[in-house]
User: Which sequence fits this backbone?
């Protein structure tokens, strides 16, 4: 459970000092707004949130929100985010990035993060294209989709993020759409509240380079699985929803709490690294700081 504060928090508290430079209409605006709303509605203070991203258009998000943040390397947000959480349990840690970042170069980290179950949130802003590099096929581009890098059609099957997450042992698996903020706020709040690794694949259309997976496409082709009676404690039912053809389900596919990675590490769980004595004298600490910082 993330730390909340007694003072009243509003969306304004999360307004960044720099305005986003995403293309007008980019789905990432919706994700940013929903994340700010979710944190504010949960009364989590900005100083208790760390957002870590990889590389890509969506990975610029930490620069546009007033929390601690780190813009790291392509596909490497998760190792850094997990390290941060293990060192400082009091913060709520959120990693974010695109489908190329998380399901392409970073997919190895993703699978192990899911089975490891560090208590944090991971948001993929999924636009089914490489936007920053101007429109190449990504891990979630559809079969036969024509892009700059596959002008005759994508010969590969797309990654199924929901099926991947459920099979990797993820304890919270959800999918949302940036154009449906009402549902997405509830999903993000549940993910942040969840004790363990929470994964949300969020459709976030690229208006500039993907003319297939548009906002209109998602409005017409998604449905709410909770409204359809889905039981998110049932793994088999979650798999069945993940493998559906036709309309695309959004909502919480699977959720089951289990011990987090950090709990059995008693030495750091009781006193996180950030609160432990350095174990070296002050002069040596100052020398090391001067050398490395
Ligand atoms: Fe968004 Fe696509 Fe523009 Fe990148 S290129 S900012 S993903 S619309």
Assistant:
């Amino acid at each position: 459970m993330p730390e909340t504060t007694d003072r009243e928090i509003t969306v304004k508290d999360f307004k960044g000092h720099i305005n986003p430079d995403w293309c007008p209409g980019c789905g990432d605006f919706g994700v940013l707004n929903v994340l700010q709303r979710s944190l504010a509605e949960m009364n989590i203070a900005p100083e208790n949130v760390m957002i870590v991203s990889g590389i890509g258009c969506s990975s610029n998000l930490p620069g546009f929100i007033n929390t601690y943040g780190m813009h790291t390397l392509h596909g490497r947000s998760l190792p850094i985010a997990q390290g941060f959480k293990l060192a400082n349990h009091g913060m709520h840690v959120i990693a974010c990035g695109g489908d190329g970042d998380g399901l392409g170069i970073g997919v190895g980290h993703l699978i192990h993060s899911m089975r490891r179950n560090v208590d944090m949130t991971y948001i993929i802003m999924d636009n089914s294209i490489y936007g920053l590099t101007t429109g190449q096929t990504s891990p979630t581009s559809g079969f036969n989709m024509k892009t700059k890098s596959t002008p005759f059609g994508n010969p590969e099957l797309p990654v199924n993020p929901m099926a991947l997450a459920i099979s990797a042992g993820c304890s919270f698996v959800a999918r949302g759409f940036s154009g449906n903020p009402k549902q997405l706020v509830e999903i993000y709040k549940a993910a942040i509240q969840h004790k363990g690794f929470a994964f949300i694949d969020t459709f976030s259309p690229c208006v500039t380079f993907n003319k297939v997976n548009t906002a209109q496409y998602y409005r017409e082709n998604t449905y709410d699985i909770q409204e359809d009676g889905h039981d998110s404690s049932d793994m088999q039912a979650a798999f069945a929803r993940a493998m559906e053809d036709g309309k695309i389900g959004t909502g919480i596919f699977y959720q089951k709490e289990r011990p987090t990675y950090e709990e059995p590490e008693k030495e750091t769980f009781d006193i996180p690294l950030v609160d432990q004595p350095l174990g070296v004298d002050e002069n040596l600490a100052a020398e090391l700081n001067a050398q490395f910082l």
